[in-house]
Design brief:
heterodimer, A: about 280 residues, alpha+beta, Uridine Diphospho-n-acetylenolpyruvylglucosamine Reductase, domain 2, Enolase-like, domain 1, four-stranded antiparallel β-sheet, 11 helices, 14 strands, about 35% helix, globular, B: about 170 residues, Ubiquitin-like (UB roll), DNA polymerase, domain 1, five-stranded mixed β-sheet, about 15% strand
């Protein structure tokens, strides 16, 4: 398990990264924390001509909080964000989900934007982005665009990023008043990929439930302020719409059962945490 | 901006256990192989080579990290610690290593260097962990011999002795 040969560029500025991406397109891979890309290189699932390391670009290392949104730069590591004492206050769902991302020994290097770029269907960061209706900020030398998370994740490990684009940041809304947040995932062991992961938001007007690990990408649904049997039925209908499939880890029926159970529990937990 | 050619051998220099070391690496060379083959530092073990088993865990710039998920060229200029840097002198074990010996926290020893590096960092940042916290932290390592019980015991024992040592 050794990577195939590639050139290496350690970009010092965003512009330098853009130049390589513009010249090489899909023959280039952006390297941030490397916790997903390097296994892909080692297993030769990715064979780029050039790898562009962006971790020494100072402009990408910032977390900007403007009171409305948190903008998390491409070089911000998961452990770094988790260490912020005010994270739970700024955006509780990130605080709840980050400890589930890999292990302490991989969060120390892994980035949030890297996890978004990798787009594993059972990964936590893409799920949180979809749950919070966050956006992904993409740029080339000449243009910049923001893509809503639900449009960004297009399928199993595929995204709307174009080959010459750099993910500069992810942007999530800050905690909203009178809104509760909840997150849980189910796997065989702590730190494994989730069989099913659920993130929920609840406000007096209704709830939003996002599910990862079932469809080929994280999927969210808004619900009216339902309770009891009506809520069960709504979550049940959502579980069927996800078109779960059997695989090595779990059957489709088992996944639907987890969505029904955890989905409802997370909506209820989010309601309790409101205020 | 310099571009390191895929087939060229490029100078990589960093601080390893307090000493500056250097050797040459191709861009694709993993840090595990650089440590073991280029520098002859074989204390860092190579298990799964995709970040799951934890055997290659070392400290990079003050945080535990998988050496197999790092390219050698990425750590140019960084500060690294490996298991060879744990013992205070060649004839003395660290408090944590000593606890591992007392509690038989290793059998084959393959996973041990990674676990020691992780725990050494963890007990410095969190001097009084509970057993639950320790087990959660150790989830980042696979040990197929011990069943983890003696590892957890050794870590709790070491934590207590380290606290005493810091108060003394």
């Amino acid at each position: 398990m050794k990577p195939a040969p590639f050139d290496y560029v350690c970009a010092q500025t965003v512009r330098e990264a853009h130049v390589v991406l513009a010249a090489e397109g899909d023959e280039a891979c952006v390297l941030a924390g490397g916790q997903s890309l390097i296994p892909m290189l080692s297993m030769r699932l990715a064979r780029p001509k050039v790898v562009v390391d962006i971790m020494r670009v100072p402009a990408l290392a910032a977390v900007d909080d403007n009171g409305q949104t948190l903008r998390i730069g491409a070089a911000v590591r998961q452990a770094e964000l988790l260490r912020r004492a005010d994270l739970g206050d700024k955006q509780p769902l990130l605080r709840l989900a980050l400890p589930w991302v890999g292990h302490a020994q991989t969060r120390s290097r892994g980035t949030l934007c890297g996890s978004a770029a990798h787009a594993d269907p059972s990964a936590e960061i893409p799920l949180v982005l979809v749950a919070l209706e966050g956006t992904i900020e993409l740029s080339t030398r000449w243009r910049r665009r923001r893509v809503p998370a639900e449009a960004f994740f297009t399928g199993m490990m595929t995204t709307a990023r174009r080959p010459d684009e750099l993910i500069e940041a992810i942007v999530v809304p800050c905690r909203r008043p009178n809104t509760g947040y909840a997150f849980r995932e189910f796997g065989r062991r702590y730190g494994d990929f989730a069989i099913v992961a659920c993130a929920a938001l609840a406000s007096p007007r209704g709830a939003r439930l996002a599910v990862g690990g079932v469809a080929d990408r994280p999927v969210a649904r808004n619900f009216a302020d339902l309770h009891g049997r009506a809520l069960d039925e709504a979550v049940e209908a959502f579980a069927w719409e996800l078109e779960a499939r059997d695989d090595l880890h779990a059957t489709a029926a088992y996944r639907r059962a987890l969505v029904r159970r955890m989905g409802r529990e997370m909506i209820e937990e989010a309601r309790r945490c409101r205020g | 901006m310099s571009r390191l050619d895929a087939l060229g051998w490029h100078r990589v220099r960093f601080e390893l256990n307090g000493r500056v070391v250097e050797s040459n690496a191709q861009p694709r060379m993993l840090l595990t192989d650089f440590l073991r083959h280029s520098l002859g530092m074989t204390g860092t073990h190579v298990g799964c080579e995709h970040g799951v088993c934890g055997a290659c865990t070392i400290e990079i710039d003050g945080v535990p990290a998988r050496a197999c998920l790092t390219l050698a060229v990425q750590v140019h200029g960084a500060k690294l610690r490996t298991v060879e840097g744990l013992a205070p002198t060649p004839d003395r074990l660290s408090i944590l290593q000593e606890a591992f010996r007392r509690h038989h926290a290793l059998q084959c020893g393959f996973c041990t260097p990674g676990i020691l590096m992780s725990l050494d960092w963890y007990l410095r940042t969190k001097p009084g962990p509970t057993e639950v916290e320790l087990r959660e932290f150790l989830a980042g390592h696979l040990c197929r011999c011990t069943g983890y019980v003696p590892i957890v015991k050794a870590a709790l024992d070491a934590a207590e002795r380290l606290r005493e040592a810091s108060h003394a």
